[in-house]
Amino acid sequence: MTSQSDIDKALAAADKPIMVESDDQLEKAQEQWLSCEVVGIDTEFFRERTWRAELGLMQISDGVTVWLVDPLKIGPLEAVARLLEDPDTLKILHAPSEDLDVLLYNTGAVPTPLYDTQTACAMLGQSLQMGYHSTVEWLLGITIDKGETRSNWIKRPLRPAQLHYAALDVCLLPMMFRHLTNKLVELNRLDWLQEDCNRMLSKALTPADPMDAWKRINGNGRLDGTALAILQALATWRDQVAEQRNLARGFVIKDAELMTIANKRPRSLTSLSELNIWHPKAVQRHGQHVISIINEVLEQEISAEPLAILLPSHRPMMNDMRKLVNAKASELNIDPAVLASKRELESLILSPPDDPPPERFLGWRYDIITSDLLSVKRKHT
Fold first, then answer.
1. Does the pLDDT of residue 148 top 90, yes or no?
2. Which residues contact 281 (CB under 8 A, 6 or more apart)?
3. Nearby residues of 110 by Cβ (< 8 Å), 6 or more positions away
4. What is the pLDDT of residue 2?
5. Which of 22, 211, 223, 313 is deepest in the core (most CB within 10 A)?
6. pTM for this predicted structure
7. CATH code assigned to 4-204
8. Domain residue spans of the chain
9. Are 100 and 110 in contact (CB under 8 A)?
10. Which distant-in-sequence residues (6+ apart) come within 8 Å of 224 by Cβ?
11. Short-list 132, 153, 11, 148, CA closest to 70
12. SS3 assignment, position 46
């Protein structure tokens, strides 16, 4: 059990973090990190107009020391990558999906092995969306100030309040890991967490396919086959341009404007300009390429099929599945979303009957919930 002394040491470390602002300091810090069995890791980043989040600060703690690594003041983060890939040091993060993307881009590595305290909490009855500050209060009875949540972590110099906030976000993670692991072991659920963390790592290491970019655009199901084919091609092009120029998608062209172009199908720069949806400079920069995409779809008479969606006839099946998930979650005292979200149930309902269930439903979930969900599916089909 954690003592008040342990908590005081962790909080004292956050009061006096070690700044890592040179390559020499980074190498020395790495030697200490690699001697730890467990370290907490967090990142502070900034994303407003860019495709990639910009890493502003990286925090690492063993529970008695906090290191704040400034990536804007040091060279390549190879020493950080060595820590992330060290199989003998367990990396503790809270809600790490965005951190994984940022770390992979900036260091070329992801934290392996990984331990997600947010998922661990959900497997113990808390919300799957519970934030770090609420988790600290639930586990340790400590209230942490959230005042710097929306800081600009790229602007220098960083203020003392920002540095203290960043240090507090990581100093308690090793202690939280010990609390959560004891509880998971008691319930025989530690293997559940390890499996889900491995799934997170696999997802982080699988790049998004630009060919799927259209699927996230609201309203795509209202388009006819030709307009949908145009939207698919334009969305793929936009993702490629956004990544190349490191711009957020909307700063290339917004979703609503893509939908308008797909519907109107302009065949010339004049027709595109007359839609009055795009800045003249953007039309000048990208217009001819957009027109060539539209012309290619129309000349080749390409037609696309919309995504499969739930039909009214699926509603009884969905209702039965959600009742089953809620009942099992209540029995296990876990957040139902740990077993299956509504979107995941949709994917199971729409998957071909002879195919294996979606990967999310395999592993530890199969015996607990998946086999019963498949029985519900067979009953309704």
1. no
2. none
3. 84, 100, 103, 104, 201, 204, 205
4. 64
5. 223
6. 0.93
7. 3.30.420.10
8. 4-204, 210-299, 312-380
9. yes
10. none
11. 153
12. strand
φ, ψ dihedrals at 23, nearest 5°:
-65, -40
The sign of the dihedral angle between the CA atoms of 202, 205, 208, 209 is negative
| 210-299 CATH choice from 1.10.4100.10, 1.10.150.80, 3.30.420.40, 1.10.3720.10 | 1.10.150.80
Confidence of residue 151 (pLDDT cuts 50, 70, 90): confident
pLDDT at 1 over 60: no
3-state secondary structure of 295: helix
Q: Give, as one character, the DSSP assignment of residue 113.
A: S
Q: Which of 125, 138, 131, 83 is nearest to 107 (CA)?
A: 83
φ, ψ of residue 44 to 5 degrees: the values are -115, 130
Burial class (CB in 10 A: 0-12, 13-18, 19+), 89: buried
**Helices in the chain by DSSP H: which ranges?**
4-15, 23-33, 78-85, 97-107, 117-122, 132-140, 160-171, 173-186, 190-204, 225-245, 255-264, 269-274, 280-299, 315-332, 336-339, 342-350, 364-365, 371-380
Q: 183 phi and psi, to 5 degrees?
A: -70, -40
